[in-house]
Amino acid sequence: MHAHIAIIGGGLVGASLALALQEGARARGWKILLVEPFAPGEGYQPSYDARSSALSYGTQQIYQRLGVWQSISPRAEPIRQIHVSDRGRFGATRLSAMEEGVPALGYVVENAWLGQCLWQALDRQVVEWRCPAEVVGLQPLQGGYRLTLDDDLQVDCDLAVLADGGRSSLREQIGIEVQRSPYAQTALIANVSPSESHRGQAFERFTDEGPMALLPLSDGRCALVWTRPGDDAQRLADLPDAAFLAELQASFGYRLGAFRQVGARHLYPLVLVEAQEQVRPHLAVLGNAAHSLHPIAGQGYNLSLRDALALAQALLGSDAPPGDFATLQAYLAGQRADQRLTVGFSDQVTRLFSSDAPLLATGRNLGLLGLDLLPPAKRWFARQAMGLGTRPL
Length: 393
Ligand SMILES: Cc1cc2nc3c(=O)[nH]c(=O)nc-3n(C[C@H](O)[C@H](O)[C@H](O)COP(=O)(O)OP(=O)(O)OC[C@H]3O[C@@H](n4cnc5c(N)ncnc54)[C@H](O)[C@@H]3O)c2cc1C
Prior knowledge:
The protein has helices at 12-28, 57-65, 69-72, 97-100, 111-120, 169-173, 230-238, 241-252, 300-316, 325-353, 361-368, 375-385, and strands spanning 2-8, 32-35, 52-56, 76-79, 81-86, 90-96, 106-110, 127-130, 135-141, 144-149, 154-162, 178-194, 201-207, 210-216, 222-228, 259-262, 266-275, 279-280, 283-285, 291-292. By secondary structure, the chain is α+β, with helices and mostly antiparallel strands. Bound molecules: flavin-adenine dinucleotide. The site of flavin-adenine dinucleotide has 31 residues, from helix 1, strand 3 and helix 9.
């Protein structure tokens, strides 16, 4: 079997790339293959335990352009206001969408819902799915790559895109090295229900024990991201629900009333993983397989979507066949500044969290939600973090 472009991994990034490519691919007669072991397009069910992502305003604009925002939006909870506070050090700050002149500072969407919307927007005439299926072998050929699937099917392609996530075994199989920088912190993620309505407010709270973010979710829930030293995060994860909620309440306070329910708790040790190569002739590495940031800064997916869009534009804007190395290099050169800034920003934010030094309050606080949805704030913080300047917001 032959495909012009084979996308390995149909997570949020692989599916978004397929979507960004499909119109141009149709016009060029390119065949795209998407291989994914799990079927995200089937039977979304709202779940209390569902994991979600904060999408930046820029991400919303991209999905709008790709024609899929309309289907995402019914379950996208707008962030109308961000309330930042630093216990024992600074007062509270509020940022509002209205003051920033945008309809929302960002949106919080369940990953399962987003995945389903993306898959449903794919045109199967152009994007052929192999799902459930797994790529078990990846081998360079003269002029392309050969994929071997778990049912022994072999697919030759001009361009293979590795979008198989942070634990990509195929990346290792073809000898792409990664750099890992651990942070000695663990993020605890869970959905919680407060007794009062969140009214579109996101909260970032700094406490002596670690920072936390509480994001507004649909159905009155809030998505909690709480960073703690590893042992303590494990202790919190193991607590009975009532004891966990009591600790959360003590740390967060009563701005949303009493916390009543908590869903499954997930732990993410914070580590920055970066692939040392993102392009080779006939190969591109995308998403978490290329750079996996910690969730606390909420930047990972937003960055990867910008990469995916840029890659699609580079491929469709070139007269060369999809695996052309110069095109892939041009794509990466174009995205490098954004990647460096975003990875550097997220890295700085996490390191600031791990230190008790009194810091640039505004920058640190804004950093928690990773708001490239607040370009002036991000620019300001990035300049601070890079030691470039002190221009106020
Ligand atoms: C707790 C948490 C919260 C986060 N919150 C945010 C946020 O608020 N905002 C934000 O911007 N980012 C956030 N991120 C980051 C975001 O989740 C990632 O950037 C995003 O999931 C990366 O998507 P991906 O498609 O690259 O990888 P994945 O989501 O890991 O998808 C990879 C896909 O590849 C498939 N696959 C794996 N191996 C193979 C194979 N051999 N063959 C075929 N398919 C394969 C997998 O089944 C999977 O579907 C968060 C991350 C975490 C962990």
